């Protein structure tokens, strides 16, 4: 009897590991920034280079930092989702135009609409680097005390907005 | 004259290349050090390639940041720590042994131990089966052997 049970157990254990591996995106690397304060910076806004934005301004608010670019294809899929979400006015959405030309970034927003409360220009990608950005779009949920609570790598879909982001935002806002 | 001008124009692109290359290879010692360190860093965009050989833009940026930090006097370890703080331990090809990665390092030895134990158990069981031969068995075995050898035409 043992002859059959032992291989069966080993097979089942192996199956569990393989099954878990199936649904996994190996490109998605867990961010070490979760639970840490959002890195400080001061960058010019996209529309007006004389004006600056710094995360300090958002103290006391739960906010979304969305990294995008005019050259980023996946951002085009995400854009309508963000547009619709911004209509709900649930929280401030700050856009970071990552490694992009100012005019091209502004053109994109003019043609497709602007879901952002403010857009900042990270032309050389330095701020993106500090936030551990390696594939746009990326989105961070930052809480009232300025701590990063969640990072979405890749486009936000209506599903993960509804199932993950919105419940988390509501929870953080209630605190 | 016209051909000379054309020839000169053909050389123009090489001028721009020279400018780009010069910027990166300003200091060959630091450049060597950077490339050596970049071999230890995983390109997150391409994954199974180190930052040193990857052509992705992200790797290019990381190399430039490494160079810049080295010029500012950062040690190799400081640069690796900076990358880990932003991108996680998986940017290193040789991840450190700590609470999180310990299972990965220990697992092969645990499996070897389990496998070795099973093998030992099986072999021991088999040896027990082999031993017990009664005198009757011995006699029967001898008879069988004689039988076959007498049937053998060569004997």
Quick synopsis:
Chain A is of the alpha/beta class. In chain A, 39% of the residues lie in helices and 18% in strands. Chain A has five helices and seven strands, in the order αβββαβαβαββα.
Please write out the topology.
The complex is a heterodimer of chains A (175) and B (155).
Chain A lengths: L1 H21 L20 E2 L7 E2 L9 E6 L4 H15 L5 E6 L3 H11 L5 E5 L3 H5 L7 E5 L5 E6 L4 H17 L1
Parallel strand pairs in A: 3-4, 4-5
Antiparallel strand pairs in A: 1-2, 3-6, 6-7
Chain B lengths: L1 H23 L3 H11 L18 H15 L4 H12 L14 H30 L3 H17 L4
The biggest sheet of chain B, with number of strands, parallel, antiparallel or mixed sense and barrel status, is: none
Spatial strand sequence of the major β-sheet of chain A: 5-4-3-6-7
Provide the residue-averaged pLDDT of chain A: 91
Q: Largest interface, and how many residues on either side?
A: A-B, 16 and 16 residues
- What count of helical segments of chain B does DSSP give? 6
The number of distinct helices of chain A, counting runs of at least 4 residues, comes to 5
What is the radius of gyration of chain B computed over CA atoms, rounded to a whole number of angstroms? 34 Å
**Helix-residue proportion of chain B:** 55-70%
Oligomeric state as shown: heterodimer
Approximate helicity band of chain A: 25-40%
CATH topology of the domain at 23-91 in chain B: Helicase, Ruva Protein, domain 3
Distance between the termini of chain B: 104 Å
Strand content of chain B: under 5%
| CATH homologous superfamily descriptor of the domain at 23-91 in chain B | Cytochrome C biogenesis protein
The fraction of residues assigned to DSSP E strands of chain A is 15-25%
């Amino acid at each position: 009897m043992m002859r059959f049970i032992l291989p069966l157990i080993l097979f089942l254990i192996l199956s569990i590991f393989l099954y878990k591996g199936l649904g996994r995106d190996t490109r998605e690397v867990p961010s070490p920034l979760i639970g840490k304060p959002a890195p400080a910076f001061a960058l010019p806004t996209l529309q007006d280079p004389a004006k600056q934005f710094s995360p300090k301004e958002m103290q006391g608010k739960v906010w979304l930092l969305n990294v995008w670019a005019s050259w980023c294809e996946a951002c085009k899929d995400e854009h309508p989702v963000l547009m619709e979400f911004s209509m709900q006015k649930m929280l401030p959405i700050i856009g970071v135009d990552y490694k992009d030309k100012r005019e091209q970034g502004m053109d994109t927003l003019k043609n497709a609409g602007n879901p952002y409360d403010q857009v900042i220009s990270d032309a050389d990608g330095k701020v993106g680097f500090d936030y551990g950005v390696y594939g746009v779009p990326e989105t961070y949920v930052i809480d009232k005390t300025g701590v990063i609570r969640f990072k979405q790598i890749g486009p936000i879909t209506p599903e993960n907005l509804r199932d993950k982001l919105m419940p988390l935002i509501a929870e953080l806002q209630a605190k | 004259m016209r051909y000379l001008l054309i020839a000169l124009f053909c050389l123009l692109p090489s001028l721009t290349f020279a400018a780009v290359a010069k910027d990166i290879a300003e200091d060959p010692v630091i450049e060597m050090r950077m490339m050596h360190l970049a071999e230890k860093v995983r390109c997150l965009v391409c994954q199974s390639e180190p930052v040193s050989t990857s052509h992705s833009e992200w790797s290019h940026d990381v190399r430039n940041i490494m160079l810049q930090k080295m010029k500012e006097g950062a040690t190799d370890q400081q640069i690796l720590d900076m990358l880990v703080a932003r991108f996680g331990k998986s940017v290193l090809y040789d991840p450190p042994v700590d609470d999180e990665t310990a299972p990965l390092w220990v697992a092969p030895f645990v499996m070897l131990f389990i496998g070795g134990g099973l093998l030992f158990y099986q072999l021991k069981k088999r040896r027990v089966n082999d031993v017990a031969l009664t005198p009757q068995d011995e006699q029967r075995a001898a008879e069988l052997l004689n039988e076959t050898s007498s049937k053998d035409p060569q004997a």
